[in-house]
Amino acid sequence: MRIGTRESRLAMRQTEIFCGLMAELNPDEGCEVLGMKSLGDIDLASPLNQMASTGAFVRELDDAMLAGRIDVSVNSLKDIPTTVADGLTVGAVLKRDAVEDVILPCPLEGLPEGAVVGTASVRRERLLKEARPDLEIRTLRGNIHTRLSKLDAGEYDAIVLAKAGLDRMGIERPMHVLDPERFVPAPAQGAIAVECRADDEGTLRMLSRIDDRGTRRAVDAERRIMRIMKAGCSAPVGIHAVPEDGMLTVTAVSYGYTPEPRRLRARVPAEPADGDLVPIAEYLIGVRDSL
């Protein structure tokens, strides 16, 4: 199996995790890894939410799959557009890791007035400014190690990252988890996805063996709400679905659609129909004022 992935150390680590699962559950299938650079890796100057094309981190991998140069691609699911490219599908979603964001090196409340905090996410920026209007938020791009180096060099007083990436890389340093009930994660945060061609039945059969159904149900609901909202990967929206008592508990926040942020907590069926999710999406974008 020819596997495409971004060349960053985190992307390669996520691919190692995938290959390890494949070796366990599909032992007769070898893995050949091909690293590629994406637009999001090359253009470190443009804010992600202002990039002209969608799928800034997956477009090149999608093109390689459609051209038959690779069989699958491994990505963080939160970086994959909610409507995947024609001819492709998400063949597997791995068991979800930590969903939370973390702030380094000190708690949010421990930062001095006017502290400089780095992030590339508009969602995180809006959450930070809601919690601490006095903070100065500056754009921070690059891979995990680049961002940590800039923190260590004193360019920022603190930075915000996804806990899952730090965990996967085995990075241990002072960090403080931001409460996901208030600091709502991005849709599908913490989940690794494997895309393939929609007509590649052999690959789909192999991927079905490593697909985590519980994770897929939760992240599918999060991503479908985003799709109904017509919101892109970089929208200032947080959505987190948690399986509880045979249902999904959805916590969400949105910015910029209404004069004030919209927050909600709702219960939907474990495998919700679009009709169950439309009221959530419409509330978040201001079409309705109650669920």
Task: Please supply descriptive tags for the structure shown above.
24% strand; 5-stranded mixed β-sheet; alpha/beta; 3 domains; D-Maltodextrin-Binding Protein, domain 2; 13 strands; Double Stranded RNA Binding Domain
Give an overview of the whole structure:
- There is one protein chain.
- By secondary structure, the chain is α/β, with parallel strands linked by helices.
- The protein has nine helices and 13 strands.
- It has helices at 9-25, 39-42, 59-66, 122-131, 144-152, 163-168, 201-208, 213-229, 274-284, and strands at residues 2-6, 32-36, 72-76, 88-93, 101-104, 116-119, 136-139, 158-162, 176-177, 192-197, 237-244, 247-254, 262-269.
- The strands form three sheets. The protein has a five-stranded mixed beta sheet, with helices on both faces. A five-stranded mixed beta sheet has the order 7-6-8-5-9, with helices on both faces. Strands 11-12-13 form a three-stranded antiparallel beta sheet, covered by helices on one side.
- Helix 1 links the parallel strand 1 (2-6) and strand 2.
- It starts with a strand and ends in a 7-residue tail after the last helix.
**CATH architectural arrangement of the largest domain:** 3-Layer(aba) Sandwich
The CATH superfamily label of the largest domain reads Periplasmic binding protein-like II
State the CATH class of the largest domain: Alpha Beta
Give the total of domains.
3
Report the count of strand segments: 13
Mean pLDDT across all residues, rounded?
Answer: 92
Amino-to-carboxy terminus distance: 46 Å
3D shape = globular
Q: What ranges have pLDDT less than 50 throughout 5 or more consecutive residues?
A: 40-46, 50-54
Helix-strand pattern, N to C? Answer: EHEHHEEEEHEHEHEEHHEEEH
Strand content: 15-25%
